[in-house]
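Because showing beats explaining, we think one record worth quoting, sequence and C-alpha cells together, and here it is:
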Amino acid sequence: MQKTLILLKPDAVQKSLVGEILSRFERKGLKIIGLKMIQLDDAVIGEHYDFLADKPFFPSIVSYMKSSPIVALALEGHEVVKVVRQLCGATNPADALPGTIRGDFAKSIDNNIIHSSDSEETAAKELARFFKAGELHSYERTLID
C-alpha cells in the first residue's frame, strides 16, 4: 500500500475545516495512519519549501505557514498519492473543480488550504520530515461496512 503526506495549512485550521477535510479522505476509503497538530518553525518550513527559498515571495510563505498550527496527516491506500491529489484539486484554487477540497474551500493560491505529496518518493521524504519513528501506525480495519 502507498503512503502519503497531507498538510492542512493554517487557513484550513483557522476556518475550522479540519474535520470536513478528514472526513472526505475517510469517505474515500483511505486509512489514517498518522495525525498531529504542530506549529512549524523556520527550519522545517525552509526544508519543506527549499525549492522556493530563492523566490521573492518566500518570506510570505514562511509567515503564512507560521501564522497558525497546521495538521499533518499520513494516509495509506491503493494509489493514495494520485487519489489524494485528485481530491485536493488544482494547486491554484481558480483552476480547482467544484467538489475538490481547494475548489470548495480555498480562496487564493497564497492560501490554498492543503498540501499533498506529488509522488511516492516525495511522500517518503515528507513523511520522514513530519513524523518520527513510531508515529505512523499499521493496523487492519475490521469494522468496515
